Amino acid sequence: MIDFLALLRQAQSAEMRQGTSSQLNWWWLDDGILQFQPQCASETTVVISAGIHGNETAPIELLAQLCLDLLQGQLELKVNLLCILGNPYAIRAGVRYIENDMNRMFCGAYHDLEDSVEVRRAAELEQVVSKFYLSYPETQRFHFDLHTAIRRSYLETFALLPYQVQAYDTKLLELIDAAELDALVYHNAIGATFTQYTSLNFQAASVTLELGKAKPFGQNNLFEFLAIDSILRNLVAAKNNPPRKKIQIRTFKVVDSILKFSEDFKLNLADDAANFSVFHLGEVIATQVNSDNQVLDYVAHLDKVFILFPNNKVKLGLRAGLVLEEITA
Ligand SMILES: [Zn+2]
Predict the structure, then answer these.
(1) 41 CA → ligand 1 middle, Å
(2) 39, 59, 119, 273: which has the highest count of C-beta atoms within 10 A?
(3) Quick one: which of 236, 111, 288, 11 has its CA closest to 228?
(4) ∠185-310-297 over CA atoms, to 5°?
(5) Cα–Cα distance measured from residue 243 to residue 261, given in angstroms and rounded to the nearest whole number
């Protein structure tokens, strides 16, 4: 029995690298990378990733358990499936990242960074995912990248859809709705996230899911993650989902990114301010001084905007927050 999370946490390789049962074949490809194939050919090819940020433990535990249930025959497999624990070094250290945030280095962005464990891992993940998708041509591709936020959120669970030119997949939108998430956010520009990579290069129906607040291993109440857990299990087993029970999902689009280009950059928010904090027209959202010593304020330019992922501490040149507009019908 392969427990890829236990192996990863002990920094061990699997003794058995592949196996077979009446239902499936599996391959342990590397630290935290497990591939499954059903015995009957499938029209659907799915990547599920967690732990791109190492301290976001609940989705890591959820994915590890899903894999164990597949291996033990507790969960049926009807799709081609690749399960990834993204950043083994950061997972072992219990931190978000070691050198650089991995979810800002896909789509080849790692080429611009100095060599590090994360640069090498991002390159490896791009290769493994590419090989996996291309080995199942003519199938429908999905990618779910699971996260938990590092701060409170007025809307606790939400989905982020990467920018893409192709239409957003109807089945993916149905799954997001059925997952009882509170909000859905459409990106307005190409980023360097893992889901951007799979959407852009393989036309996968890709989504980044923020599933609540990060806690240490063993302290998660996995009950809070039941809805998303059952949606992923239903996808893997090709089963239908029950209808949504919560109120209608709220929908937002990104209208701007706030970039940090000076060390004195300061958001007009408490350090622990929640995601989806609100600013009204004309209110100052952030200040910084440019190289000519001019104070440049970032001001809300719509009646009401919402700030996502506010973070004073990002490195220079990176985004310190996203500005959203609500588009719920
Ligand atoms: Zn994350």
Answers:
(1) 33
(2) 59
(3) 236
(4) 110
(5) 45
Ordered domains of the chain (ranges, CATH): 4-236 (3.40.630.10), 255-326 (2.40.50.630)
How far apart are the CA of 261 and the centre of ligand 1, in A?
Answer: 23
Three-class DSSP labels, the chain: CCCHHHHHHCCCCCCCCEEECCCEEEEEEECCEEEEEECCCCCEEEEEEECCCCCCHHHHHHHHHHHHHHHCCCCCCCCEEEEEECCHHHHHHCCCCCCCCHHHCCCCHHHHCCCCHHHHHHHHHHHHHHHHHHCCCCCEEEEEEEEEECCCECCCCEEEECCCCCCCCHHHHHHHHHCCCCEEEECCCCCCCHHHHHHHHHCCEEEEEEEEECCCCCCCCHHHHHHHHHHHHHHHCCCCCCCCCCCCCEEEEEEEEEECCCCCCEECCCCCCCECEEEECCCEEEEEECCCCCEEEEECCCCEEEEECCCCCCCCCCEEEEEEEECCC
Q: How far is the CA of 203 from the centre of ligand 1 (A)?
A: 22
Task: Name residue, tokens 């220079």.
Answer: 316
**Rounded CA Rg of the chain:** 20
Calculate how far, in angstroms, residue 133's C-alpha sits from the geometric centre of ligand 1.
23
Establish whether 56 is an annotated binding residue. yes
Residue ranges of the chain whose pLDDT lies below 70: 329
Pair of tokens at residue 149: 């936020």
Q: Is 126 annotated as a binding residue?
A: no
Residues within 5 A (CB) of ion ligand 1:
53, 56, 147
313: which 2 tokens?
A: 């501490």
Q: What are the distances in angstroms from CA 200 to CA 23, 101, 123, 273?
A: 32, 20, 16, 32
Judge whether 76 is annotated as a binding position: no
Q: Catalytic site residues?
A: 210
What's the 123 CA to ligand 1 centre distance in angstroms?
A: 18
